[in-house]
C-alpha cells in the first residue's frame, strides 16, 4: 500500500470519524470526490488506481479534474469549489506525515476557488403557494401525506435533509406546538407551528399511525422518504398546479424553493432579518441578507421614502402633449 492509499484509508476510517467527527453527509461528499478524482487520474494518466500516489496528485492534474467536472460533467462553480474543499481536506491532513511530498501538496492547497455569481432567489407567491398546496389528490393517502409535507415545509422552511430525518418524536402538536430538528452544522432548533399547520398534521398523523416505522413522512412500507423521492413528488404536483397557475412554467421550483418562500413570507410580514436567520438555522445573517434583494416591493417602498416632501409617491406618467411630441420625433 503506497502513501496516498494509506492516507486515504486513515482519513476516512479514523480521522474523519473520531478526530473531526464529521457528519455522514460530509464524509460521503469527500469520499465521492476522491473516488471521482482517482478514476479521472487513472483514466487520464493510464495508471491503475492502486498505483496512484502523491506524485500524480499535482496542481496541474487537480485543476484538470476540476475543469473536467465543470465542462464535461456540467457541474456548477459552486460544486467545483466543494470538490476542491474535499481534496484540500485530505491533503492538508496528509502533509505533516509526508514532508517528502510537501511541494506537491502545498501547490494543490494553493489552488484558488472559482468565483461564483449568486443568482436571484426564486420563491413562490401566495397564489402559487395556494395552487401547489391544492395540487395533491387528497382522496388518497399519499396525496394527503404530500399535502401535509408541503404545508409544513412552506411554513417552517426546513431543509430537505431535515424533512427526510424527521420522526414522530420531533413534532409536538400540543400546547406550544412546534417541530424540532438538527440542521446544518449540527445546529438544533425548534420551529413553532401555526394553527392551520397543526390541524393539517393532526389529520395526517391519525392516518400515519396505521403504517410501520418512525419516520414522520414515509413510503408505503414505513421507510423515510429520500431526497429524490421528495423532489419527484414535488415535480408531480407542480405539473398539476401549473394547470391552474401558469406562472409555474417560468420557474424552476425545488424543495429548496419552498424554504426560500418561507423566508420571503417572514420578510414581507416585517420580521427582522436576524429572527429569520434563527428561524432558518443560519449561523449568521450573511446568508439571510440575500432575501432583502429578492423582494421588489420592499425596494419600491425604499424609493418612495426618498421622495421629496410634497411629491406623491407613484410611477411617473407623462403629460399627453409631451408624450405625443416625443412620439413624433
UniProtKB/TrEMBL annotation:
<keyword id="KW-0238">DNA-binding</keyword>
<dbReference type="InterPro" id="IPR013762">
    <property type="entry name" value="Integrase-like_cat_sf"/>
</dbReference>
<dbReference type="InterPro" id="IPR050090">
    <property type="entry name" value="Tyrosine_recombinase_XerCD"/>
</dbReference>
<dbReference type="Pfam" id="PF00589">
    <property type="entry name" value="Phage_integrase"/>
</dbReference>
<dbReference type="InterPro" id="IPR011010">
    <property type="entry name" value="DNA_brk_join_enz"/>
</dbReference>
<dbReference type="InterPro" id="IPR004107">
    <property type="entry name" value="Integrase_SAM-like_N"/>
</dbReference>
<dbReference type="InterPro" id="IPR010998">
    <property type="entry name" value="Integrase_recombinase_N"/>
</dbReference>
<protein>
    <submittedName>
        <fullName>Site-specific integrase</fullName>
    </submittedName>
</protein>
<keyword id="KW-0229">DNA integration</keyword>
<dbReference type="Pfam" id="PF02899">
    <property type="entry name" value="Phage_int_SAM_1"/>
</dbReference>
<feature type="domain" description="Core-binding (CB)">
    <location>
        <begin position="2"/>
        <end position="95"/>
    </location>
</feature>
<feature type="domain" description="Tyr recombinase">
    <location>
        <begin position="119"/>
        <end position="304"/>
    </location>
</feature>
<dbReference type="InterPro" id="IPR044068">
    <property type="entry name" value="CB"/>
</dbReference>
<dbReference type="InterPro" id="IPR002104">
    <property type="entry name" value="Integrase_catalytic"/>
</dbReference>
<keyword id="KW-0233">DNA recombination</keyword>
Amino acid at each position: 500500500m503506497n502513501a496516498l492509499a494509506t492516507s486515504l484509508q486513515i482519513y476516512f476510517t479514523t480521522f474523519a470519524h473520531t478526530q473531526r467527527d464529521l457528519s455522514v453527509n460530509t464524509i460521503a461528499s469527500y469520499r465521492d470526490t476522491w473516488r471521482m478524482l482517482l478514476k479521472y487520474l487513472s483514466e487520464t494518466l493510464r495508471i491503475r488506481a492502486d498505483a496512484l500516489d502523491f506524485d500524480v496528485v499535482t496542481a496541474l492534474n487537480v485543476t484538470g479534474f476540476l475543469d473536467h467536472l465543470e465542462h464535461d460533467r456540467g457541474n456548477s462553480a459552486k460544486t467545483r469549489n466543494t470538490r476542491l474543499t474535499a481534496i484540500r481536506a485530505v491533503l492538508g491532513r496528509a502533509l505533516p506525515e509526508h514532508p517528502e511530498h510537501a511541494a506537491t501538496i502545498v501547490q494543490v492547497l494553493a489552488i484558488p476557488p472559482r468565483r461564483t455569481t449568486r443568482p436571484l432567489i426564486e420563491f413562490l407567491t401566495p397564489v402559487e403557494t395556494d395552487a401547489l398546496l391544492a395540487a395533491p389528490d387528497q382522496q388518497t393517502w399519499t396525496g394527503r401525506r404530500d399535502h401535509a409535507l408541503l404545508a409544513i415545509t412552506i411554513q417552517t422552511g426546513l431543509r430537505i435533509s431535515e424533512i427526510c430525518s424527521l420522526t414522530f418524536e420531533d413534532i409536538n402538536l400540543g400546547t406550544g406546538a412546534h417541530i424540532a430538528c438538527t440542521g446544518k452544522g449540527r445546529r438544533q432548533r425548534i420551529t413553532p407551528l401555526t394553527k392551520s399547520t397543526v390541524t393539517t398534521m393532526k389529520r395526517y398523523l391519525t392516518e400515519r399511525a396505521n403504517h410501520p416505522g418512525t419516520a414522520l413522512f414515509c413510503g408505503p412500507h414505513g421507510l423515510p422518504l429520500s431526497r429524490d423521492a421528495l423532489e419527484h413528488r414535488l415535480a408531480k404536483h407542480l405539473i398539476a398546479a401549473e394547470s391552474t397557475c401558469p406562472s409555474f412554467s417560468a420557474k424552476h421550483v425545488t424543495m429548496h424553493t419552498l424554504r426560500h418562500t418561507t423566508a420571503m413570507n417572514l420578510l414581507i410580514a416585517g420580521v427582522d432579518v436576524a429572527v429569520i436567520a434563527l428561524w432558518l438555522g443560519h449561523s449568521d445573517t450573511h446568508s439571510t441578507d440575500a432575501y432583502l434583494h429578492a423582494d421588489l416591493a420592499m425596494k419600491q417602498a425604499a424609493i418612495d421614502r426618498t421622495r421629496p416632501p410634497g411629491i406623491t409617491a407613484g410611477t411617473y406618467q407623462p403629460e399627453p402633449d409631451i408624450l405625443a411630441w416625443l412620439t413624433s420625433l
